[in-house]
Automatic annotation (TrEMBL):
Keyword Oxidoreductase carried by entry: yes
Every Aldehyde dehydrogenase domain range: 8-468
InterPro entries: Ald_DH/histidinol_DH, Ald_DH_C, Ald_DH_N, Aldehyde_DH_dom, Aldehyde_DH_NAD(P), Aldehyde_DH_Superfamily
Molecular function terms, GO-annotated: succinate-semialdehyde dehydrogenase (NAD+) activity
SUPFAM superfamilies: ALDH-like
Keyword Signal part of the UniProt annotation: no
Highest taxon, organism lineage: Bacteria
Designated name of the protein: Aldehyde dehydrogenase
Keywords linked to the UniProt accession: Oxidoreductase
Family of this protein: Belongs to the aldehyde dehydrogenase family.
Active site: E242, C276
Amino acid sequence: MLYINGEWIKTEDKMDVFNPATGELIESVSTGGKEYAKQAIQDAKEAFKTWKKLTAKERGSYLAKAAEIMKSKADQLAETITKENGKPLPDAKGEVASGIEHLEWYAEEAKRVYGDTVPASSPDRQLLVIKQPIGVCGAITPWNFPLSMITRKIAPAIAAGCTVVLKPAPDTPLSAIHVFECFHEAGLPKGVINLVIGPAEEIGHELTSSSDVRKISFTGSTMVGKKLLKDSADTVKKVSMELGGHAPYIVFDDADLDLAVDGILASKFKNAGQTCISTNRIYVHENVADEFSEKLAAKVSKLSVGNGIEDNVDVGPVITQAAISKVKNHVEDAVKNNGKVLTGGKVHAKSEAGGNFFEPTVIANANESMLIASEETFGPVAPIFTFKDEEEIVEKANHPTYGLAAYCFTSNLGRSMRMMQELEFGIVGINDTSPGGVQAPFGGVKESGIGKEGGQYGIREYLEEKAVSIRLV
Ligand code: NAP
């Protein structure tokens, strides 16, 4: 269903949503293309006139109400995420909790959009900087966090006083519909948020080419992000781009190896490796590489693979058959280039019943010539490279293209501080694979993105500063 100007809209055109764990059809949802996107933009423009004039407290109260409604439906929302995305239910519950946290945070952050009084250059002038919402925002989201990626955009945008037209990923539109239901029940004024599910190019073109849309916030691949950046140039829009990554995971020989091994279980195998900040390259100091590899392979071989709706599943399916093919290709290429499979390495037998399962895989003896060394695998495959010294590893870890997240395990404080400074990434975890939270700025450098989501930083992306000079006549 589409949601435009406060109304749920059914259309003749339909799109099927499948369960990646079973291959079964979950639901057919209505879709709409450019005419609907155009209408949604006009309604968002109209709504902006009044929404921006509400007090921050009033806007925040709608977010707080939506958060309460989301809490009351948390189990149902989590089940929907698991069904359409495949992640295990406890992880889906975690995603819903994160979505709620974003609503709650920005319900409060709305009230903290302060301006400045700036010393003027002459005594008869008063110079002020006021912050104002940018206007109608186009938001485009991926399938890997089908709920929290939406709340991370909508919450700061509407807290700031902007209005939104959202296009979610076609694989996971049901979570998007649920988020909109929460806002609808919260009584959010019509037109403030609008949902258009449908063909990406058409909707994307309407959003990027319309001069009524003043901002594009996108999360997805670097390739699509670049296209949207180019398309937004003609109307000189503000943009936030949360793009792809290629995270290094560096384990020094002074690290707590068990901690580092457990970190991989979270950073590589959660969400079946389909997270933008997932580890892609594990670099282990040669003195401890064998011990680390053995411990990791032993733990990974015990991970249970299956339908995330069932109990005790660690790794769910990947999103599509195309994703399976990419993962398989990366593993085959690694083997061809002297990689040694320590565990896994194949399409999982459970796929025979219709799901998209790949065996949790560890590959030792990884090297720079492998595809896996430079491309995002987006699957449950952990390649282990080795290194000799700190200087060498900083150079290797700093990817020429990507700069989203990096991880480093060491017990040396000086080294921790050096790595924090030298790693060219937007997010660095030192002995930590969950380097974030609602309060922290999330985003990349280089081709991993522009702008931040989260905390006080996230709301700035939806505001413009206006300089006001008052002559004291
Ligand atoms: P994707 O192919 O770039 O798609 C993301 C969204 O963009 C989908 O809704 C997609 O819709 C839409 N889209 C594609 N082409 C478009 C166009 N021409 N105009 C407008 N919209 C368009 O990415 P994905 O495969 O879904 O997600 C995985 C990627 O996202 C990975 O690279 C991952 O690292 C990145 N990611 C980054 C972050 C971050 O915060 N940095 C977070 C999560 C994911 P259609 O599917 O209908 O084409």
